[in-house]
Design brief:
By secondary structure, the chain is an alpha+beta fold. About 30% of the residues lie in helices and about 25% in strands. Strands 5-4-7-8-1-2-3-6 form an 8-stranded antiparallel sheet. It is globular, with a radius of gyration of 17 Å.
Amino acid sequence: MDQNDLRNLVGDELDELEVEALRPAHELIRTADPLDEVPSELAASIRAIPSSEEQPAKREHRRDVFKTRRAQVLALAAALAGIAFAIGWVARGGDEGLPSAADVVTLEATRFASNDAEMVIDVFPIDEAGNWVLLADIAGLEPAGETQHYELWLTQNGRVAVSCGRFLVDADGQAQNLWFNAPYRFSEYDDWVVTLEGPGNERSRVMLRAPVTTRTS
């Protein structure tokens, strides 16, 4: 495959390390066998990804959510990685499709977020490559600013340690059927947290939090 194919797809906003991180997911999608029927969960997730053809018509009422192309690429990158693993599961599982969730985690609001803010994550069983695929719904968060995004982390000794992906919410503070990926040993981490990230390594206080309960890895 031409090494420039993925660069042409995501544009110039991502650096080389970010592009290389996306390459395995891109390869899996590019080489996967066609599916007989796309599961409704995947279809909903794909519909949630901003489409370049839809942007002009929707730009006016979503300008406070998807203001920059970089923010759109980050949202696409997070969804692309999770969708790629989910497609692999469906292709291998045949009629069984996605397995049942191994755990359901609910991140609740801290005092730095609205009381009704939460993130509910279905944690699917670990795959052969050591990846945990996550399917999440978010509600109650304020839309991110022009150069901001939300990020899902695992913490270690009270500090954010590893990222599971970035996301945005709509004007109502919601996002549904978002796929993330956690290629980590959960037993090494303490909490799930969500922060609001900005330029220059600017980071908010923890807005959503839940203990790590899925320990087997």
